[in-house]
Structures are given as structure tokens and as C-alpha cells.
Amino acid sequence: MHNLFMSAEPAVLGLRERKKIKTRAAIREHAMRLFKAQGYNETSVEQIAEAAEVSPSTFFRYFPTKEDVVLADDIDPIVLQVLADQPADLQHNRVDVVREVERQRLVYAVPELRQAMMTLLYRSIDMIASAVAARLGRSPDDFEVRVFAGAVAGAVLGGAVPGGATGPEVGPDGTFDGAIKAIEFLAAGLPLT
163-180: per-residue pLDDT in tens? Predict the structure, then answer.
């Protein structure tokens, strides 16, 4: 089984890039910890900045709003790059992303974040359409490509959130079982028998 996040050659980053990555991760880590402990609405940007040992202005350089700490999806660009780098006939079935599970649980628990997630859903459809179009040599605006991208995004959303607003279900091996089942169900033609 292929690990979706493995790469042959690790990228060598300079000190500045590594520091930016660490700062962004620290802000996000402390924000998620505070959201879990105090609640999303009860946590201020100032509290997050203080916990991450940065100024509020530094917080806003990394995340334009408090919502963006939760909604920023660091996984999609990685997945899309890895997908683009793989042979066309290679299929991936499992992804282990524990932090992503916590992020999505928070998104589904806070109404303001769920609403903002709809905007990101359209962006995800655009990204999926671009990746699929590149693999097929078609335009991302092609009707069939857009419908396919929307179906994949919708299937994953529906499968990852059984019952509506509790967040993704995670299997014993740390994978998104519901999302994977949704893609398999979609690939089978959505049989309702």
C-alpha cells in the first residue's frame, strides 16, 4: 500500500521557510487546543497569539481571520501534488491524517465554520477539477470534469459526515472510513439496492 504523503526526495528548505512553517504550525496547534478547551467562540485571537508566543499582527500574517485557522486546508495541496506525481493507473485507498480529523470535527461543530466551509467546498471542487483535467488533458471548465469533481467532493462530504454535523468518522487504522466508502460507492455507480 502506498503512503500518500511519502516523497522520494525531501525538499530542502531555508531557515526562513522552516521558521514560517513552525510559526504557522504553532499558531494552529495552540488555536486548536484552545478551541477544544474553551470553545471556538470563547477563544480570542489574542489568546491564540499569546499561547503561540506571537503578536496578534503575526497571527494575521498567517491567518487573515480566526476562521481561517480552522478552515485552511493544508492537506489538499499535498494530496493534489502527490496525485499529479503518480502513474495514472495507481489508486490510493487509505490516508492517515489525525490532525485533519480534529480540524474537520471543529468545522462541523461550529455553525459559522460550517457556513464558511461551503465557500471552501467550491474551492475544493475547483482543485479536484484542475487535477482531473490535468491528468486527462482536458479543461478544468469542461462540463463532465466539473460534474465529476462535484460528485467526488459531495460524496466525500456526505460519507465523512454521517448524520450531518458531528465531523468525520475515523477508522481503527486512522483513516477516513466514511469518505473512502463514499468514493467506493460513487465508483460503483451509487447503487441503491
Answer: 444 445 554 444 456 777
pTM above 0.70, yes or no: no
For the residues of 26-71, what is the DSSP string, one character each?
HHHHHHHHHHHHH-TTT--HHHHHHHHTS-HHHHHHH-SSHHHHHH
Residue type, 109: A
User: Please, are residues 169 and 160 in contact by the beta-carbon 8 Å criterion?
Assistant: yes
The dihedral through the CA atoms of 59, 165, 74, 38 has a sign that is positive
User: Residue with C-alpha cell 447503487?
Assistant: 191
The CA distance from 150 to 157, in Å, is 10
pLDDT tens profile 81-95: 655 666 655 544 344
- For the chain, what's the residue count? 193
Q: At 43, list the grid cell.
A: 477563544
Q: What is the mean pLDDT of residues 136-151?
A: 91
Percent with pLDDT over 70 in the chain: 69
Which domains are present in the chain?
Answer: 1-64 (1.10.10.60), 73-193 (1.10.357)
